[in-house]
Amino acid sequence: MRLAVSLKLAKLMGYLSRKLLHKSGETIPGKVLLTIYPRALIVLSQAREIALVSGTNGKTSTTKALSEVVSQLGTTVSNKTGSNLDRASATTLMSPSQYAVLEVDELYLPRLIAETKPRVVLLLNLSRDQLHRMHEVKRVAKRWKAAVDAAPDTVFVGDVDDPFIGYALSDAANSVRVSFGGRRHGDGAVCPACGKYLQWNRDNYSCSCGLSNKNFDLERRAGLAAFRNAELANIAGAVLGAPSISFAPAVLERVIERKVSGIDCSIRLVKNPASWSEALTSVKGESVVLILNARQVDGLDTSWLWDVSFEALRGKNVAICGERAIDISYRLHVAGIENWLEADLPGALTHFNGASSVEVLAAYTAFFKLVSS
Amino acid sequence: MSAIRIVRIHNELLGTYGDQGNAEVLAFRAKFHGISTSIIDVTYEQALPRNGNIFLLGGAEDAAQLLSLEALKREKTLEGAIGDGAVLLAVCAGFQIIGNTFWADGQKVDGLSLLDVESSPGKKRCVGEVKAKTSILNLDLSGFENHSGVTTLNSGVQAFAKVSSGYGNGDGRFDGAVVGNVFGTYMHGPILARNPQLADLILTRATGSAFNQISDPLASKYAEIARKY
User: Which of A55, A84, B101, B189 fits a disulfide with B143 by CB distance 3.0 to 4.6 angstroms?
Assistant: First the structure.
């Protein structure tokens, strides 16, 4: 089938799924298009500049940030809501533009690099996430390295304080290796390049095979993930010729504000040991709700809860809900951190009557349910 | 016995699937039994204490598994401690390490031979919930597995549990192996968090004394709910 006809059909299906099934319409058109016109990503990415963003954590906010940077240069399309499989990319590329900034799932990144021939790819970080699907972090890093090595015309921007990113970029023809002064990595005991015991000197790693975060092209000051991602977005934007900008905090934080049962809730997305640890360090108040689900995108296995330190919650008022609330409740129970186990968020919030605001850390599917309600 | 030493071996290497929680659950359950404990973390670069009462090995990626094996082969401490009556719980990559042979990063290597089993790469990855019944306690267990190894038990070796749902050692019939105080299993969860009675059994074996049933309603409720995951 010709592309023009395929596009029409895909758009029609997207329209129908929105109207009849009340879906967001982000994946259906792309899915239809890729089914009837498998080369769609290749063809639709020609004649425009493509930037890709991938990593375990921070993809959506960094894509939003990079999209803002790139928009200064010309018309830009982007998948901004977190849908990041090949079909979401195809849906995004169905709209004409001069630039496209695409958030890409870690396992789909090699295909997107091969098919869209991006000018720049931003590699944020790799750590444990959805292991039922990713299996092993090294496996993802290995695929990334092969994709990087096969794309000599693409510029790869990456945070090499993460040894998996350092490894993925170790033989890149064109790269901007960024260091924020080093940072410990929860899964960084083994050199991803050679399998030896990775040597850590405080926050910096080095291996006898040569892998080290001291091999950088740019150095930036240390900061939290939101800060680092903003810097990386500007560095990737500069590859395309865009001037740096400073971002509103809302762009960089995956936090939404909602009033639930009359209480102001700051709801933050959390999904794996690294993002839970980051989120727990930013808990400011005394009233906290944790929501845990374990569906496909949350990760089916909750064993990783035992790798997160919940010490930041000690002494606070903690209520827990969600489909797998008991997993996390027992985890805290063993750590000696008191908590209330409740069926749902309104139930959890009954413990905070009179509180001016409550911080909610929500697993992926729980977060999106709250965002869309 | 007043205090028991729980030795968590190479968690920085064997900590990919949350198995470090097994140590915390043991220490927590021990408190109910009136036993004091200490958790001793031993890294790849350190020597194992000979006087440990419970040793724990967890799941890992291939390269990390090989490093852990290399470190354990530097000394015979683990073998010696088990000979003296210490308990070993080895999960997933750890279970393979204590067998006769296993495969990692495309090579076949000799394990510690604490269990007379052989592991080899399977055709597909075994991922998902496991439900099994262990003959030791006649206890229904639940856990989560994520491995591509297939483990076969040599004749006379007792399986750790009979699988009712999931893959276990790869064929969907049995999970793990057990000889004396050495337990091998593919179950994460961590296994002792989801099956606290197993933690009690390990404590009983380590101390040599039987305990009364303890009351921790949340633990019992979690075990019961998790068996339906």
Answer: B189
